[in-house]
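sorry for the late reply, my laptop died twice this morning and i had to redo everyting from scratch. anyway the thing you sent over, i finally got around to it. pasting the sequence first so we're on the same page, its 178 residues, then the predicted structure underneath. double check i copied it right bc i was rushing
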Amino acid sequence: MADSNSNNDSATTGTAPAPAIIGPEPSPISSEERRAKLEKDLARIPLFMTQLPDSAGDGDENAAVAALQTLVSDEPPEQMARLLKDEGNVCFKRGRFADAATAYTNALTYDIDDVGDSDLRVSLLLNRAAANLALHNHGLVLRDCADALRIRPRSPKALYRAARACVALDKFDEADEC
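ok and here's the structure:
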């Protein structure tokens, strides 16, 4: 009987009963701490890494990291640039001009000037100019063509693409100079 009276205590005292908590209990960890832990955990997964660690560590779980480190460290810059150029060419042929421009841009980040291969740099600049021409990024086309012309003056492709960009920008006087 005492239990039935305790249920009615809130009615006699005028206070509402405490609401029952439904669902999971609140976490003792703050949302900032949860976010930091999640970011730390994700950083150990190769797909989400923004930088490769200095060493792959032990065990099979880091085999993917070890493979990525091997790829990054073993390929000479010229080879990596050529691979990215090929990727850009495939994207360009499929009409994926933004992806092509990105691939050519990534290829240009490699230090290929030490190899003395100005042909590769000019080719990458002109390919990126072609992709940007298809995307109507005419200012970027002019910049890439100017860079290519500094390396190889009177390059027909550079002059042609620069002229097309000038015409698109209604800069007919400059197009005539090309």
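The two ends are 102 Å apart (CA to CA).
thats about all i looked at so far, will dig more tmrw
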